[in-house]
Write a structure and sequence with these properties.
Chain lengths: 159, 357
């Protein structure tokens, strides 16, 4: 499905360019961002929830639209906004940690990562956002053997 | 933004150490030096290693070695980590003006230093240590939200003289005033706090609020009248000390000086600023940023001391391939700057103030 829609949009952009209605480069840029965003999403959707046996995709914690990729100075900025399952979910930081670890290890292109809780979905979202985006605190959390084990289990690729 | 005039072109040679490059990220499952050992602050007299996270991989791989070569080796050592003993070696040299063999490290030779003392007390990782200019006091700060002040006597005996619990969150960095016994700390709680000894006890004498997120690091200017702070909110703030009875009419409470933010540098950094260093020789201000770049600012020649303006005089894009965590100016050689990064490398740079600025 995707190759077909990719081909369609490429053809469309070519037609538009020939008609003098758009720049070929400009049409390609959003395409690259979408591809990268899908690459990111492919990695995070299989992450398991720390509490339940379902993946984050199944629980609608993450979705395709929650991933945004921007290109800044030849580097990619990946922004993820996830929705924890319940408003007072104490595992929101853990989900943030899993997202970070998975992308750090598996995303092939050089990137900077920002993870946020989607607005209005959590009571202490500012605190959690600050924690998830502080690399020192994230590293300290990953040194905790209990947390490390939980995260490892959540990001483990299904066989 | 100003162009990156004034920075030496990217150095030509790179001397790699040890077994070569290994991928290092902030989440790599490894223990940074001093990280888990709460309270370990002093390796030996005048040696201090902060429990930094990624970026100090060079420390881990190197063993200490007694220097044989003069100047180049000692200059490099002096500027890394600010208070490092001449025997603790640093890793990769990217600067072509420093001969690599002098800095090369033989990983197989055993360490030549021994641990003199272990200071215990902190309940969580110690993030920063700093010697006071007198050499008699040592300050440490930790993720346990406290700042400790230690006194050392002639027999190398350390004694804790104060535990300061003023911050409400992790303390990221401590730094001493260049000439007075005034201590400053930066914290995850978005504030900077200043401490002084009053009647035999250390107290928090000022709290600087203004940053909108974690304050990562601090630096005093050569005169000690101003303090620069850098933050996760992507700004640098310059604070000035006003003594009671000052001419500008800034209010002070009692006999404590008050500090006011006199300048904010915003719009220059696109990500968190992890470190800031103020050159004691030239007055240049260098910043280490999470966008992999190093920037240098200088005060404009005719700027008003009460409302100074700073210009960006050098912008080194991609100084490293990952976040730059730390920058330090050499105390003896003007313009020599060291930086370290999450990419596991330490780099040396030569900075020259651009003409006409």
């Amino acid at each position: 499905m995707q190759p077909v829609s990719g081909l369609l949009s490429w053809t469309l952009s070519r037609v538009l360019w020939l008609l003098g209605l758009s720049e070929p480069g400009a049409a390609r840029q959003p395409q690259i961002m979408e591809e990268k965003a899908l690459e990111v999403y492919d990695l995070i959707r299989t992450i398991r929830d720390p509490e339940k046996p379902n993946t984050l995709e199944e629980l609608e914690v993450v979705s395709e639209s929650c991933v945004e990729v921007q290109e800044i100075n030849e580097e990619y900025l990946v922004i993820i906004r996830f929705t924890p399952t319940v408003p007072h979910c104490s595992l929101a930081t853990l989900i943030g940690l899993c997202l970070r670890v998975k992308l750090q290890r598996c995303l092939p292109f050089k990137h900077k990562l920002e993870i946020y809780i989607s607005e209005g979905t959590h009571s202490t979202e500012e605190d959690i956002n600050k924690q998830i985006n502080d690399k020192q605190r994230v590293a300290a959390a990953m040194e905790n053997p209990n947390l490390q084990e939980i995260v490892e289990q959540c990001v483990l690729e299904p066989d | 933004m100003a162009a990156d005039a004034g920075m030496a072109p990217r150095p030509l040679r790179r001397a790699l150490l040890g077994s070569g490059r290994r991928p290092v990220g902030p989440l790599a499952p490894r223990r940074p030096p001093g990280g888990r050992d709460a309270g370990r602050a002093a390796e030996r007299r005048r040696t201090a290693q902060a429990g930094q996270q990624a970026g100090s991989r060079a420390f881990r791989d190197c063993h200490t070695r007694r220097p044989r070569a003069p100047y180049p080796v000692s200059a490099a050592w002096a500027l890394i980590g600010r208070d490092l003993d001449s025997r603790v070696l640093i890793g990769v040299a990217k600067c072509s003006s420093l001969p690599p063999p002098a800095l090369a490290c033989n990983a197989r030779s055993p360490p030549a230093s021994k641990c003199v003392t272990t200071l215990e007390g902190h309940e969580n990782e110690v993030k920063s240590v700093a010697w006071a200019p007198s050499g008699n006091l040592l300050a440490t700060c930790s993720r346990d939200k406290s700042v400790w002040v230690w006194e050392v006597d002639e027999e190398d005996e350390y004694e804790c003289v104060s535990v300061l619990n003023s911050h409400t969150q992790d303390v990221k960095h401590v730094v001493w005033h260049p000439s007075q016994e005034l201590l400053a700390s930066a914290s995850y709680d978005d504030t900077v706090k200043l401490y002084r000894e009053e009647e035999d006890d250390w107290v928090c004498c000022a709290t600087l609020e203004g940053h909108e997120s974690t304050v990562w690091s601090l630096a005093f200017d050569p005169s000690g009248q101003r303090l620069a702070s850098c933050s996760d909110d992507r700004t640098v703030r310059i604070w000035r000390q006003y003594l009671p009875g000052n001419e500008q009419g800034v209010a002070c409470s009692g006999s404590d000086p008050s500090w006011k933010c006199i300048c904010t540098l915003s719009g220059f950094h696109s990500r968190t600023i992890y470190d800031i260093a103020w050159c004691q020789l030239t007055g240049a201000l260098a910043t280490a940023c999470g966008d992999d770049a190093i920037r240098v600012f200088q005060e404009d020649p005719n700027s008003d001391p009460q409302q100074p303006t700073f210009s960006l005089t050098a912008h080194l894009h991609q100084a490293h391939s990952q976040d730059v965590n730390c920058v330090a100016w050499n105390p003896k050689e003007p313009g020599l700057l060291a930086s370290c990064s999450d990419d596991g490398e330490v780099a040396f740079w030569k900075y020259q103030r651009p003409e006409g600025l």
